[in-house]
Amino acid sequence: IAVKGAVQAPFFRLGKTSKSQWLTCIRHYPAPWAELATQNIILTVPADSIRPIEDPEPLLTLWERIMAAVAELAATPATFLRPERIVADVQISAGWMHAGYPIMCHLDSVKELVNMEYMQANGVWGPIHELGHNQQQAGWEFPPHTTEATCNLWSVYVHEKVLGIPRDRAHGDLQLKNRKKRISDYLGKGAQLKDWNVWTALETYLQLQEAFDWKPFIQLFSEYQTMSNIPTDNPSKMNLWAEKFSRQVKKNLAPFFVAWGWPIKGEVSKKLASLPNWDKNPMKKV
Hints:
Layout: E1 11-13, H1 19-24, E2 33-37, E3 41-46, H2 57-74, E4 84-89, E5 97-98, E6 103-106, H3 111-114, H4 116-122, H5 125-133, H6 151-161, H7 167-170, H8 176-188, H9 198-212, H10 215-224, H11 234-249, H12 254-259, H13 266-272
Parallel strand pairs: 1-2, 3-4, 4-6
Antiparallel strand pairs: 2-3, 5-6
């Protein structure tokens, strides 16, 4: 096969591409798009955005740390079955960004992908949010309530574990005053599941994480991967999660989930009553 009229594009693979060749030659290749690649992620961005980068290794090493954290929380192998892809483009099919293969974003978001100083100072909430979507599993998802909520567990995890940015700085909606107001508003409306979504739904998980750390989540995400006969309706799935999380932390969390408006069945509450009470249940103080 003969290819005519093609031009070379800048490409750098962590651990393989020569830094000297990148500096003197590769980054100046004339194609309008470039790719930066690691074992677990490939970034496709306008070539002009990477030509000023003299050494892509620190940036891509940071991305490898990010991807390691994504896999760690998901309880999946450190080496992805295929590298995730994020592509920046002039026009995408939906929203500001969207998940899938590849993850897509607008050109305004390129700085969150390749500007290391910007990433370390301001975070990368959007890209990690989309990577979080790609980790969600039907067994522990309760759509439409948690679709835009549990993916943000990965955003919180990566910002705190890798970037050293606490949750209240990683996103304005996680500032304490905003969190308290959301809970108050939700309870003031009667704690109805129709209002339990996005940031309000995330709050349920954050309260559990702040009380019991990340380990129960990682253990449950791992366990769900080997479970069979997981129910498909939301009420049954929510009862299953409530029971399994309770047993992970060895506390009766039924009153906590009931306070959040979850449809906890009497039989589940009865089973969990044998566990110690959760005396520090934050929903008792609201």
